[in-house]
């Protein structure tokens, strides 16, 4: 499992190279909460846990959690309207965050809960993770 975590850490470091761009001014002003899904991930007592900041979201309408092919995908859609007398403004954004599940993750036993603006997804990890094996190469002429 250590090699999976190292691989995930190097992918994360590469992605973080571009985090600086989030602070640059843009042609369109987008509220910070709509730019991306901030997460924390860790393992705890045989479970892989991902927590995502999704304040002000309705988990029944706005948030979707999917697991497939060793990937966890958290998607959210935010629609916000502001009315100020004769003026109104709206913001719309779609957020998606994908994370690689660790070896041994039980994709059929994923549980998600939403409390006080935090989505927590828990994935049990089997103690018996898949081990690397050598594959015999069949030779044909």
UniProtKB/TrEMBL annotation:
SUPFAM superfamilies named in the record: HSP20-like chaperones (SSF49764)
Pfam families: HSP20 (PF00011)
CDD domains assigned: ACD_sHsps-like
Residue ranges constituting the SHSP domain according to the UniProt record: 30-140
PANTHER family recorded: HEAT-SHOCK PROTEIN 20 FAMILY MEMBER (PTHR11527)
Family designation: Belongs to the small heat shock protein (HSP20) family.
Name of this chain's protein: Alpha-crystallin HspX
Organism: Kribbella karoonensis
